[in-house]
């Protein structure tokens, strides 16, 4: 039976009296990669920030394993849910290992250093993300793709059941976009990690996500497998583009973009 580690129930959120999200309802299935798609400004990031209580719903609720997030301490939420934010700009001169080790903070008592178990988990996260050889490098001297791997490693040291990613390929070179999402896909497949990816990159979401939620007009416009959600009609309505879901010559799911639709 498919279990739902996270449920969004009639979620609503307002900014300055203006409704951004309204009656948003969906569930997250264990071990899947879920894509949250929609145009800029549709509320994708706002919804993502409600999923780990960085924001609190104005209406409705988010439920983690049967418990409303509003009834949980942030420290306890961080033991189940980790986040990779949209921006990975870091101004302080931490080493890579110091940055990765920060992910263990929800598990530590005040003023206690890393235990041998903490160190093992940090080593494992760095090895999984291919950054062990960068351990002593300063994070603020690294490229965007390298920093992204460090941020993912930091998230993995939380040993989360759920990983939230906000535009994880933003500002990355195209080859690094594939490397980052190939890594996330492997972690989901091999370790059962449940992943939520917020993006407006249709081809990437079509390729990597098991299921898609399409946000439009403040709520869930469509939900399902990529081929069922990314229809020409939905992409025309939500993004105002002429596009087609298809399989490429290697059998990979993608979206072919033809251009903007004429405005009526």
What descriptive keywords fit this protein?
264 residues; alpha/beta; 6-stranded mixed sheet; 4-stranded antiparallel sheet; 30% helix; globular
Could you describe the 3D structure shown?
Helices cover about 30% and strands about 30% of the residues. It is of the alpha/beta class. It has a six-stranded mixed sheet, sandwiched between helices. It is globular.
Measure the end-to-end span. 46 Å
- Radius of gyration using CA atoms only: 19 Å
What's the SSE pattern? EEEHEEHEHHHEHEHEEHHEE
Helix content: 25-40%
Shape, principal axes of CA atoms: globular
Overall structural class, as computed from helix and strand content, comes to alpha/beta
Write down how many β-strands occur, each being a DSSP E stretch of 2 or more residues.
12
Tell me the number of helical segments per DSSP (H or I, 4 or more residues long).
9
The average pLDDT is 92
Strand order of the largest sheet: 6-7-8-3-9-10
Strand fraction equals: 25-35%
The residue ranges in which pLDDT falls below 50 over 5 or more consecutive positions are none
Biggest beta sheet attributes: 6 strands, mixed
What's the arrangement of secondary structure elements?
Blueprint: E1 6-15, E2 18-28, E3 33-37, H1 44-50, E4 59-64, E5 67-68, H2 74-77, E6 81-84, H3 96-101, H4 116-128, H5 144-156, E7 162-166, H6 174-191, E8 194-199, H7 202-208, E9 211-216, E10 219-224, H8 226-229, H9 232-239, E11 241-247, E12 253-260
Parallel strand pairs: 3-8, 3-9, 6-7, 7-8
Antiparallel strand pairs: 1-2, 1-4, 4-5, 9-10, 11-12
Helix pairs in contact: 4-5
